[in-house]
Write a structure and sequence with these properties.
It is built from three helices and three strands. The protein is α+β, with helices and mostly antiparallel strands. The chain has a three-stranded antiparallel beta sheet.
């Protein structure tokens, strides 16, 4: 005959759930704080040996494009376009890497999502 209640150890589970909820709320607050700080950060990358420099925010918005005078060649606009794309993509990659790193630091101590085994 099966026992009623379903949780081994009697009433120990509700206390664990409260702890998990508190941990989840704390982690959510930390995530929000980290996201805000990340959005305010700037990430800069260069291409063409520094001839083109692009700055983006953690919100993935381009805030600055700096061009060296010698790279502005009306006869080779395609190269300038390629350098801007390369510098922009690298700056965005840096922003994404910082976001991933911040998330890994935050979730690293959970060990399988707080013991849920997922």
């Amino acid at each position: 005959m099966a026992k009623r209640g379903g949780f081994p150890g009697g009433m120990g589970m509700p206390g664990n759930m409260n702890n998990l909820m508190k941990q989840a709320q704390k982690m959510q607050k930390q995530m929000e704080e980290n996201q805000k700080a990340l959005e305010e950060q700037e990430f800069t990358a260069a291409a063409g040996g520094g001839a083109v420099e692009v700055t983006v925010t953690g919100k993935r918005e381009v805030t600055k494009v700096k061009l060296a005078e010698e790279v502005v060649d009306p006869d080779d606009i395609e190269m300038l376009e390629d350098l801007i794309v390369a510098a922009t993509n690298e700056a965005l990659r840096k922003a994404e890497e910082a976001a991933s790193s911040a998330m890994a630091k935050l979730t690293g101590g959970l060990g399988g999502l707080g013991g849920f085994g997922l």
